Amino acid sequence: MSSTLFRTKKVEQSILDTEEPEHALKKSLSALDLTVFGVGVIIGTGIFVLTGTVAKNNAGPAVALAFVVAGVVCALAALCYAEFASTVPVAGSAYTFSYASLGELPAWIIGWDLVLEFALGTAVVAVGWSGYIASLLDNAGWHLPAALGSRDGADGFGFDILAAALVLVLTAILVLGTKLSARVTSIVVAIKVTVVLTVIVAGAFFIKGDNYDPFIPKAQAVEAGGGLNSPLIQLMFGWAPSNFGVMGIFTAASVVFFAFIGFDVVATAAEETKHPQRDMPRGIIGSLIICTTLYVLVSIVVTGMEHYTKLSITAPLADAFKATGHPWFAGFISFGAAVGLTTVCMILLLGQTRVFFAMSRDGLLPRFFSHVHPRYKTPHRPTILLGVIIAIVAGFTPLSELAELVNIGTLFAFVVVAIGVVLLRRSRPDLHRAFRTPWVPFVPILSVLASFWLMLNLPAETWLRFGVWMVIGCVVYFLYGRSHSRLARGEASTAPTPGPGGAGPV
């Protein structure tokens, strides 16, 4: 039984599957498209909100260093993703990588994890977008009925019509093709980056040196609770750290890490990339470098404009400009945040549908969902199904308490991918790797430790909910996936075997 649970799918077979006419996605993305996707999904509410929270509560002006620390953790994972995505250019991201290196059951577990991560992330972002749009409408004198507004914290029956409508519109765009999605994303990302650059350039004129004193505030004891002071940390290490000081920077890093979530979604588009061996590493690493640089600059400017003790937690960037007597910038930033969340939502939805598509093509989910649209060459069936489900969830469910599930799911994927790099190096040293993670196994091991450390900082309730979802996934696998997988049935690809110069690193 153990041999069937850990049976691996050969890289060559995974690549052959992408050539089957009924299951082949259209290759239309370039390195620039991938970088835009990455920047589009990474820059979201994190940079507009988390800066004030962690500066005021954890790190002071040293929040810039916290962004650096979080960026390093993500960079370690990005190096591992880049090797896998260029070696196995197949839809599914960490799921596909796990199938090639760890085996079917681990692949199912990570795929099930990603379905939750991306679905919940899409719904959470849609609800956040709805809040920004409702606020802008209120400012314009248009007021939505309470029953059609955000459900977060609301009483009684209601449906967040704006959040649901956004998901449905983005679903239609994704059905029409990833190139159209890339064009829409490029326009929105241009607006979003313009807003961020405006904050950096305009805000630099209002910086006061006194606001950086002290740059690293004196450490303060914290009460028992979540974060680095979680029961898991105290159980394993027997100590309770403090906010501010040097440890406050690491506390802040565990929070601002959430602002980086999404760069791994770029890997789910590997199969739709024209030259994945060359462009996937560029898209993944390039988008991460751009976003980390912007995050650090914004945090330096904002903490220089207003003393960290006075920063707003809900809208630090906008309120910092209000405090300097420039409310026009505040409205411009709010508009940019609302527009920016559109791309975050769309790219998370794209990532989820590609994972679902890859799992169905392998037979772990019904094969009905693995057929692409005859004209647009997109996985229209899972896109429509998941889009409708997420629209309903976003409309009816207050999601603030569940948002942390997105973070633990992402970190879990980081751990699995890093381990997979080491195992595939040992089991398939013959594979051509257009990009190689440096210093293996040191970098993957460091990535595992860093990701697991941040996982430990999440509340115990998040671990419990994550565990319940994983148990449900195992039940589904043993009742359906294990017996219906193509490996279990001995099915092979119907695509012609590529000759010299064929697709992929065969």
Automatic annotation (TrEMBL):
Cellular compartment(s): Membrane
Keywords: Membrane, Transmembrane, Transmembrane helix, Transport
Main localization category: membrane
Classification via Pfam families: AA_permease_2
UniProt xrefs under InterPro entries: AA/rel_permease1
Name by which UniProt lists this protein: APA family basic amino acid/polyamine antiporter
Topology term for the membrane: Multi-pass membrane protein
Transmembrane regions listed in the UniProt entry: 34-55, 62-84, 90-111, 118-137, 157-177, 184-207, 244-263, 284-308, 328-351, 383-399, 405-425, 437-456, 462-480
